[in-house]
Amino acid sequence: MHEFALTDDLLKLARDEAERAGLARIDKIIVRIGGLSGVFPDSIEFAFEFLKRENEVTADAELVIEKIPGCAKCSNCGKVFELDRLFLFCPECEIPTLEIIDGRDFLLVSIEGEEKSEGGVKASLEAGDENG
Ligand SMILES: [Zn+2]
Questions:
Q1: Residue 131 above 70 pLDDT?
Q2: How confident is the model at residue 1 (pLDDT cuts 50, 70, 90)?
Q3: I need a labelling partner for 31 at 20 to 30 A (CA). Which of 3, 48, 51, 123 fits?
Q4: How far, in Å, CA of 91 to CA of 74, rounded?
Q5: Cα separation, 38 vs 20, whole angstroms
Q6: From the CA of 37, how far away is ligand 1's center (Å)?
Q7: CA distance 16 to 10
Q8: What's the gap in Å between 90 CA and the centre of ligand 1?
Q9: For residue 79, how far is its CA from the centre of ligand 1 (angstroms)?
Q10: 18 vs 8, 31, 69, 85, 122, CA distance in Å?
Q11: How far is the CA of 86 from the centre of ligand 1 (A)?
Q12: Rounded to the nearest whole angstrom, what is the distance from the C-alpha of residue 12 to the centroid of ligand 1?
């Protein structure tokens, strides 16, 4: 399942971005998954929940997925239409003259998080022995 490797890369990238932006923790990671990217959103979600815990920066992060439908344009008749798989034939011309114009992305859109506190220690450790 290559989604694990992709998600691992995504989390690393998000942590790099957080480091650059001065974020101590990431609350939200927004990604875009195109319908023609070959990436399954459900698998990414599954891998994300598993892998985010490996690093405290992303441990509580929420994953938001923007699903972008595949979109192609026929270079013969100019027709633009959505498609959910890589099917390179124009429905009008029925010849393989398509140019994929959207839907192949799997990318990090943005991250949101908590800034590192300059002046002191923001987090406090609670010593308790609650159930659970
Ligand atoms: Zn066409």
A1: no
A2: low
A3: 123
A4: 9
A5: 30
A6: 23
A7: 10
A8: 5
A9: 6
A10: 15, 15, 28, 34, 17
A11: 15
A12: 41
Residue 101 to residue 103: CA distance in whole angstroms: 7
pLDDT over 60 at 13, yes or no: yes
Q: Which domains does the chain have, with CATH numbers?
A: 2-69+104-115 (3.30.2320.50)
Do residues 72 and 100 make contact, with C-beta atoms less than 8 angstroms apart?
yes
Backbone φ and ψ for 45, nearest 5 degrees, come out as: -60, -45
Does the reported pTM lie above 0.85?
Answer: no
Kindly report, residue by residue over 87-119, the tens digit of the pLDDT.
778 888 988 878 889 999 999 999 999 998 764
Ligand 1 centroid to 105 CA: how many Å?
Answer: 24
Give me ligand 1 centre to Cα 9, in Å.
38
